[in-house]
Amino acid sequence: MDEKVLVLDIDGTLTNSRKEISPATKRGILETLKRGHKVILASGRPTPGMRRYEKELELEKYGGYLLSFNGGRIVECRSGEIVYQRTLPANVIPGLYAFAKRNGCGLITYFGDKIISAFEPDEYVQLESRINGMEVKVVDDFKEYVDFDINKCLLTAPAERAEIYEKELAAKYGYMLSIYRSEPFFIEIMPQNVDKATSLDRMLETVGLTRENAICCGDGFNDISMIKYAGLGVAMGNAQPAVKDVADYITGTNDEDGLVQVMEEFIWQ
To answer: Looking at the 3D structure of the chain, how many domains does it have?
Structure first.
């Protein structure tokens, strides 16, 4: 059997519009695992925000992986071990804080099971809290409070402003950070050369597989790197146009069980 690695973004890919895994998609993924293939959840979410889907898909039992923070951390589900991690340089925090304060952006990072916010949560930070099931803790002095290693920061702003801020931040920090939007209103701030593809490549190497084994499915801007990297790159029917442009295959939407179509076509044959 040609072992496959099914790599799935969560929001807009694995989950439907209600942030749920549909019964058909869940059955399909469990069937894929039972046939001996690997499943990796790859998301911009923090690790705690992925745990409910890890449990639902029994990834601890079958030996799956969580690729969180857009590739900033990889956890093996069976052992709970962090097998790969990259963190932000601490000296960028004051500058990011000043930029967010000057432009009225939200600014958050993560510690344990909490979201750490520099300011009172805007609607996008509140959305991040709901999506991940994590409480927001607003701190008096973000610069002083964040004295621990972090995998990413997230800046938030309305889409039309976020597009401008993304370019401004890339111009200032692009030589040392990876900066891109996962959603029109989420600006991801990551260590340089950290994205889903880079971390996935590192993980596959540790388990003796290659990119040719990987089927990567996604819908957002931060999925482009892994879709281009994969042996088969799949864009959901609801994906951003830029994602569809680089995909090898376009499947149904996340509300049409598009992942089941991928498994039937390319894994179960």
So the answer is: 2
104 and 82 share a domain?
no
Specify whether the CB–CB gap between 80 and 47 falls below 8 A.
no
3-state secondary structure of 155: strand
- Of 179, 209, 207, 208, which Cα lies nearest the Cα of 195? 179
Domain boundary among 160, 191, 222: 191
Backbone angles phi, psi at 99, to 5 degrees: -65, -45
Check pLDDT > 70 for residue 4: yes
The per-residue pLDDT for 207 is: 84
User: Residue 9 sits in which domain range?
Assistant: 5-86+194-266
Does the pLDDT of residue 206 top 90, yes or no?
Answer: no
Q: Are residues 255 and 129 in the same domain?
A: no
The token pair at 15 is 């989950």
Please tell me the pTM assigned to this model.
0.88
| Cβ neighbours, 10 Å, residue 248 | 14
Q: Give yes or no: residues 113 and 163 share one domain.
A: yes
Instruction: Tell me what the pLDDT averaged over the chain comes to.
Output: 95
